[in-house]
# Entry
Amino acid sequence: MLKTIRKQIADANEIKYEPRECHHQGECRGTCPACEAEVRYIERQLDIRRQLGRAVAIVGISAGLSALSGCGDKSKKVDNVSEEESDLTVGKVMVEPAERLDGDVEYRSPVDTVIIEKDPATIKKRTAPFKASAKELTGISEIIEEPEPSVVGRTENQLVGEIVEQMPMFPGGSEALFNYLSENITYPKECEDVCVQGRVVVSFVVEKDGSVTNAEVVKSVYQPLDEEALRVVKNMPKWIPGMLNGEPTRVKYSVPVTFRLE
Amino acid sequence: MKAPMIGLCRHRLTTDGQGVTTLVAFHGCPLRCKYCLNAQCLRADGVWRRMDALDILNEVMVDDLYFKATNGGITFGGGEPLLRSNEIVGFCKLRPEEWRIYIETSLNVERCHLEAVAPYIHHYFIDIKDMNPDIYHRYTSIDNKRVIENLHWLAEHVDLSKVTIRLPHIPHYNTSEDIVRSREQLEKMGFSDFDCFDYVIQNEG
# Structure
């Protein structure tokens, strides 16, 4: 039903949008990378309309929806609950003695920027490539997918940013991007020794065939950190390209990588 | 001041709040319920993150579009969210005004917390367990004097159409007759919206 909400917002604002079938493995609650990318696309389109001085309609336009569900497996109930848990909607709460309960709260890892963190007290233990567990994700790792709009024309090979219909995506999504970066980036020894930390932003272009080109540091911190972030970005596997009018298109993209010592 | 959290749950659909909501669940609770649904809110290792109002806003902003389109917003839960009234008030002042604010609470807190958040709350979901002090104490290990005082305060200061009272049947602790008595007592206070349901203990079949 989140898909329906997206469609209603798009239609109300004359945004060209056709929800794609969600291929997320398992039930998607609307938080898979493809669904999130669709939301971000609609938000960008709304921003463009605001910048052009046009009124946008958002508030309450989907308020009539009641029997809402996720966008993946339609056979399942609201909020990814089990068949038994779905009794919640008809007046029952499934409970167990406290010591066996996990509760109904999803532990969500924020995925907005990549942070490579190193605690001086544990540096020696962490000389191996970083392999963040799901638990660690909550504290040290985020991934940002933030397109850098760079529309400069409409010739065959020029870049498209703010009007791209589907943003390029790292194979496996943002969490996979995080895993790739965290496993491959090594905190430069010389930076540990002098406690250098900071946020390096690397921009690059995802080509029509998904290859990564034109990688460059657009926000520098310190040369060894810059070089390490750049090295790993350049070695990334091919992405799923961005789409415009149903065709692959070149998109400029940036990834912030935060190096942090604690 | 950063408050300990047990988690966020996005894209809740018409669950404890209209439209699409995100549950913001705080760590810590004054109650010790026998059948606690979110027992991690009591465990020292149950803290997911510590967040202040701005941190929370940054986390939930990702669903701004859904909140606005469905007249949804944020549901504060836990744990006992009213113990974190400072963070809730701080958040409410920062959030887009179109977002609605819901709260799931036991009301078993000092009055000052309730008074602080009241101007921002669109709807209360209050689990009173049982109005009978003995039943309440047996089930939660504390008494319900503050709950009843806070219910009276709400009845005097808040539009009661904004309040849903939960009246659970708690196996081994109360009966349908107890629930009827609780309801009658609450109706005399002016409450009219009740959510009656059963706690179903899974390992008892």
Helices of chain B lie at 53-60, 64-70, 85-94, 111-117, 133-140, 145-157, 176-189. The mean pLDDT of chain B is 93.
